[in-house]
Design brief:
Layout: E1 2-7, H1 11-16, E2 26-29, H2 47-63, H3 68-81, H4 83-96, E3 103-107, H5 114-125, H6 130-143, H7 145-155, H8 161-170, H9 175-189, H10 192-198, H11 203-213
Parallel strand pairs: 1-2, 1-3
Length: 215
């Protein structure tokens, strides 16, 4: 029943690994960020190539004095502060106010940060409480476990134990990341609803989302 796919990736990611075209399915690209730190497709790359790309990313973080946790916290804050990202969240939610007969799927590369924040905002619009939103977000670790183990298996012979631990962390989510996203929205805009207004989502559009998906 799939009828619409929303691709949250950058154009370089799409060029690296385009979606499979399915007849009758609408494809919409709404990039949430301007560029990617780790622009690599784990499924199609070998372990050595993945390791090289990841280690290059880790070096860049070290040069900026960032641990991986700090890097992720800054990324989630940037989702809030960057007008480009806010515009993307607005486009994503506005698109969902236009229902289709079948299912809509949205994805990024790892399916955890861009997808995680978009889904958290959608759940908020639908009236989910903070506990339910975080519960859904943390399901990422269980649902992506098989993929994470496959990536770790590919790179383990090419990285140190320390870097292997970093890769594990990189492919996981932590409550602190999403909490930082909401905290930044509170700090800058006074709350999640006010953040949605800054993304261009109106009260009527929130109501439309509830009408579409809570029946």
């Amino acid at each position: 029943g799939l009828q619409r796919v929303i691709d949250l990736r950058t154009q370089s990611e799409i060029n690296n690994s385009p979606d499979v075209t399915i007849q009758g399915v609408e494809y919409v690209n709404i990039p949430v960020i301007r560029a990617t730190t780790f622009g690599i497709t784990y499924e199609k790359s070998d372990g050595k190539r993945i390791a090289e790309m990841l280690q290059a990313g880790f070096r860049r973080m070290a040069e900026r004095g960032e641990t991986f946790s700090l890097h992720m916290e800054l990324l989630y804050k940037k989702f809030v502060t960057d007008s480009f990202s806010r515009d993307a969240y607005g486009k994503f939610l506005k698109l969902l106010t236009e229902p289709v007969e079948g299912a809509t799927l949205w994805h990024c590369t790892a399916g955890k940060d861009r997808v995680g924040t978009c889904t958290a905002l959608l759940l908020f619009c639908l009236g989910a409480d903070r506990e339910r939103i975080f519960e859904d977000y943390m399901l990422t670790n269980a649902q992506s476990r098989e993929n994470k183990l496959a990536v770790l298996g590919k790179v383990k012979d090419f990285v140190s134990e320390e870097d292997l631990y970093r890769v594990d962390k990189m492919l996981s989510v932590e409550e602190a990341f999403l909490q930082g996203f909401f905290d930044e929205a509170e700090r800058l805009f006074g709350g999640t609803r006010q953040f949605l207004r800054a993304c261009g989502v109106t009260e009527k559009e929130e109501e439309k989302l509830r009408e579409n998906y809570l029946q």
